[in-house]
Amino acid sequence: MIRRIQFVVGYWLLWLVVFELARFSFVVFNPAQSSPLPFSELMSSFWHGFRMDASMISYIVLTVCLLTLVQWGFSTFP
């Protein structure tokens, strides 16, 4: 059971890295939109984006959690 929990948490963190890298690449590759903004504004966008990303990732991982529970339930039958 611990391995399944580690898998789900790792999967959640993987999606978080993907979302944050996407945001960072947008800032880097679109300097016309991001250069006039102060640094604090950019960091604020990362903070608020993190909260929204965490919400979206939770919806994605919910499916994985449900499938993991079903798999765990079937593996406990003799």
Question: Could you characterize what this model shows?
Answer:
- It is a single chain.
- With 78 residues, the protein is an all-alpha fold.
- It has 3 helices and no strands.
- The protein has helices spanning 2-29, 31-34, 39-75.
- Helix 1 (2-29) runs antiparallel to helix 3 (39-75).
- The longest helix has 37 residues, at 39-75.
- The protein starts with a helix and ends with a helix.
- The model has no long low-confidence stretch (mean pLDDT 88).
Main attributes of the structure:
single chain, 78 residues, mainly alpha, 3 helices, rod-shaped
Topology:
Elements: H1 2-29, H2 31-34, H3 39-75
Share of helix among residues? over 70%
Q: Please, what is the average pLDDT?
A: 88
Order of helices and strands: HHH
Shape: rod-shaped
Largest sheet, if any? none
Which strand-content bin applies to the residues?
Answer: under 5%
Number of helices: 3
Report the strand count. Answer: 0
Poorly predicted tracts of residues: none
Kindly provide the radius of gyration, computed on alpha-carbon positions and rounded to a whole number of angstroms.
Answer: 18 Å
Counting helices, strands and paired strands, the structural category is mainly alpha
Span between N and C termini?
Answer: 17 Å
